[in-house]
Design goal:
The chain is mainly β. 0% of the residues lie in helices and 26% in strands.
């Protein structure tokens, strides 16, 4: 079969369903060749020294149910193509240096249960589309630079059991819909 070389190791495109490289001393940028492993269900690169952007081609990995890139030094924006990962259950991008806004396309991840974006430098408002994530259980956005009001659509998240928003620059009142 066709192979992809990543960090000096060859992976078979058809047979590779998970890439588990926690605390592996990885440096440099995430190679775009990772986007060729279209059968991946888990991409786990946390606790390394990865820098640079999350490649926008990550949206090609439509079988992912876990994207774990936390505890690196990733920068740049969260690519809007992340909205193509409609099988995602866990999206962990915390403890990086990500900037820009949370893309509204995140609302397309209808299977998402965990959205953990804390400890970054995200700006802009919390997109109201987050209210479309009806399976969401954990929403962790603390320690960013988010502004504006908490969207009332958060009240649509009937499965939410953890909502952590502290250390941002949010304004206005807590929406009454949160009581839902």
């Amino acid at each position: 079969g066709i192979e992809v070389e990543l960090w000096g190791v060859c992976y078979n495109i058809e047979e590779t369903t998970d890439l588990y490289l926690t605390s592996s001393g990885l440096t440099g940028e995430i190679p775009i060749d990772v986007c060729n492993l279209i059968n991946l269900t888990e991409l786990i690169l946390n606790s390394n020294d990865l820098t640079g952007p999350i490649p926008s081609c990550i949206g090609n990995l439509t079988n992912l149910n876990l994207l774990e890139l936390s505890r690196n030094e990733l920068s740049g924006v969260i690519p809007s193509s992340i909205g193509q990962l409609t099988n995602l259950v866990h999206l962990h991008l915390f403890n990086n240096e990500l900037t820009g806004e949370i893309p509204s396309e995140i609302g397309q991840l209808i299977n998402l249960e965990n959205l953990q974006l804390f400890n970054n430098q995200l700006t802009g408002e919390i997109p109201s589309e987050i209210g479309q994530l009806i399976n969401l259980e954990n929403l962790q956005l603390f320690n960013n630079q988010l502004i504006g009001e908490i969207p009332g659509s958060i009240g649509d998240l009937i499965n939410l059991n953890s909502l952590v928003l502290y250390n941002n620059q949010l304004t206005g009142e807590i929406p009454s819909e949160i009581g839902n």
